[in-house]
Amino acid sequence: MLYHVRMEVHPPTHLPPAEFDRLKAEEKAQAQALQESGRWVHLWRIAGQYANISVFDVADHDELHAILSSLPLFPFMSVAVTPLARHPSAI
Ligand SMILES: O=C(O)CC1=CCC(=O)O1
Q1: Which residues line ligand 1 (CB under 6 A)?
Q2: Half-sphere exposure of 80 (CA within 13 A, CB side)
Q3: What is the per-residue burial (b if ≥16 Cβ within 10 Å, else e) of 52-65?
Q4: Ligand 1 centroid, distance to 91 Cα (angstroms)
Q5: Which of 3, 16, 72, 91 is buried most deeply by CB count within 10 Å?
Q6: What is the spatial distance between Cα 68 and Cα 58, in angstroms, rounded to a whole number?
Q7: What digits encode the pLDDT tens for the residues 5-20?
Q8: Percent of the chain having pLDDT more than 70?
Q9: CATH code that applies to domain 2-84
Q10: Residue 81: closest CA among 6, 1, 31, 8
Q11: Where are the domains of the chain?
Q12: CB-based contacts of 60: which residues, under 8 Å, 6+ apart?
């Protein structure tokens, strides 16, 4: 199943910057591994925002939730998920 996901990062004020940088590096490594596995299909920065638009190709809602909630930045993100169905006019 395909999912459109919008993630907005809200950097914590209570964490030392070096700790947040460490979480960002872990997030990058995990995101790149998921892209290489084919499950994180698109990852785009929303221009002018600390947010991204992503497309995931995973088995179901449960797998998507497991992936999103395992991301190192998950505690500092708001996430909006839109399941995608095939459009009848799509070629
Ligand atoms: O910077 C972001 O939008 C959050 C994020 C998702 C994957 C990644 O590497 O950073």
Answers
A1: 7, 9, 27-28, 31, 52, 73
A2: 5
A3: bebebebeeeeebe
A4: 31
A5: 3
A6: 11
A7: 999 999 999 999 999 9
A8: 100
A9: 3.30.70.1060
A10: 6
A11: 2-84
A12: 1
